Amino acid sequence: MTRRVMLDLETLGLDPGCVILSIGAVAFDEDGLGETFYRSISLNSCDEAALEIDAGTLEWWLEQDENVQEQLVGGDELTEVLHEFSEFYSGAEELWGNAPSFDCEILAGAYDAVNAPVPWEFYHERCFRTLKNLPGAVDLEREGDHHDALDDAVHQARRASATLAGWSE
């Protein structure tokens, strides 16, 4: 089986070079979900790496429920989290995002900001947004919280896994 990783980021911007609040990821294949990865990232460490905050995105976060806003505080050092994600991703053949032009590019921008190698090749990137809109794609009831990087990644991976399993029969 192909080892795939579904990625979701919560950020304070929409472009590469923006602050990343958290990284959620889950390994998956046609048989279901595997190990998960979740880390919250310190705003101070993002600032030290010269990652930027988009005012409009920050305003959006401040309009959310208190439990969602909790993602704005705490977290681990950016460099440490990126190193841990690289170890988690090791051995995977595909990195899925919703869409790669957001999640993968922003994460790659963070690796660049700390002068660390990106652990995937551009041709490993896959688009969940495209998959979920194709005829025959499986739609599952949402579990978990919206705007929680791990809950979003798990939901997306469950849908992708079920869709791919149905297509491989």
TrEMBL record:
Transmembrane segments: none annotated. It is an enzyme of class 3 (hydrolase). The lineage of its organism: Archaea, Methanobacteriati, Methanobacteriota, Stenosarchaea group, Halobacteria. This is 3'-5' exonuclease. Its EC number is 3.1.-.-. Residues 4-162 form the 3'-5' exoribonuclease Rv2179c-like domain. InterPro entries: RNaseH-like_sf, RNaseH_sf, Rv2179c-like. It holds the Pfam family Rv2179c-like. Keywords: Exonuclease, Hydrolase, Nuclease. SUPFAM superfamilies: Ribonuclease H-like. One of its GO terms (molecular function) is exonuclease activity. It comes from Halomarina rubra.
